[in-house]
Amino acid sequence: MKELQLKYGCNPNQKPSRIYMEEGELPITVLCGRPGYINFLDALNSWQLVRELKAATGLPAAASFKHVSPAGAAVGLPLNETLSRIYFVDDIRVPLSPIACAYARARGADRMSSYGDFIALSDTCDEATALLIKREVSDGIIAPGYTPEALEILREKRKGTYNVIQMDPSYRPAPIERKQCFGITFEQGRNEVCLSDPALFENIPTQNKEFPEEARRDLMIALITLKYTQSNSVCYVKDGQAIGIGAGQQSRIHCTRLAGSKADIWWLRQHPQVMNLPFVPGIRRADRDNTIDIYISDDYMDVLQDGEWQKFFTKKPEPLTREQKREWIAQNTGVSLGSDAFFPFGDNVERAHKSGVQYIAQAGGSVRDDNVIETCDKYGIAMTFTNIRLFHH
After folding, report:
1. Which CATH architecture has domain 176-268+329-385?
2. What is the CB neighbour count within 10 angstroms for residue 136?
């Protein structure tokens, strides 16, 4: 198949619409549903991300994509009891495989942003992963293959209209890519930079020059995630998964704040008071996620005022005070941070430090590198200058 006609483009008024190959066959097969223009953009960008994560780490990888940027990305490390609970996967009736763990992590990091996501898996989708996907609000999935059990589960989702795409893992695109804007064609070489190269850790200007293997892995995950995130972008990673992604901001400090805020929310969801919220039986998953998000925020009274809390809880919980939140966030350590370009000022490091960042990978090359290095040294943060920019538009 050389082309596939689509219902419409980004918006219903943008017709006609199609995807096609100028040479050769399309490397995808639609097994179920009718994916749209944005679905395919998410699918093909997220597939590149998980393919590269798998190649760099040797571990199964998953991504949760929304509007051509990842809401979450992770590799398939086992889940502890806390993560199983906050990702709401502790009741799955079959053991979680590595690829299922990867998706649980990718989806669970920022559940609000992952609502209605497009999923990418580096490995064959199995029954355990399909069972996780079945109960979430999602637009579709791309993977190199599906077990018969998984395909049967996914084909039942959304009354048989769930988008299931199979990707040919042997496909390699041409080295030159093109896109159009306002009738003008842009052309460039594909971004094939290798982000698992040990040379990324050769230029370490900070006093602390120690990067444990886990930190190197997490920084690779951060940089590969940023390679497929709309710029400007910053990514916080811990224990093999992105815990905060700030995408598409005009100011880098706003990226750092946005991603740091998401990392803080991820950590606050592990607070015992949050994990033990007395939800009413049968509450919808989306309502529960939204309620947790508001409860953690400064707008907690929106769900705790009389007449409201009864909709969500069996009894009115006490709010988390600012001091409680500050003390809990201070316990988060060992976080790695990647930036898709240089930090222009030390304020980015100041903000990152508040969310437990101890390792940083960024391009370097700012006229204020000295200020950034000095701020890292103040907190004992190890930082490497990668000399690689990762803008993606």
Report:
1. 3-Layer(aba) Sandwich (3.40)
2. 19
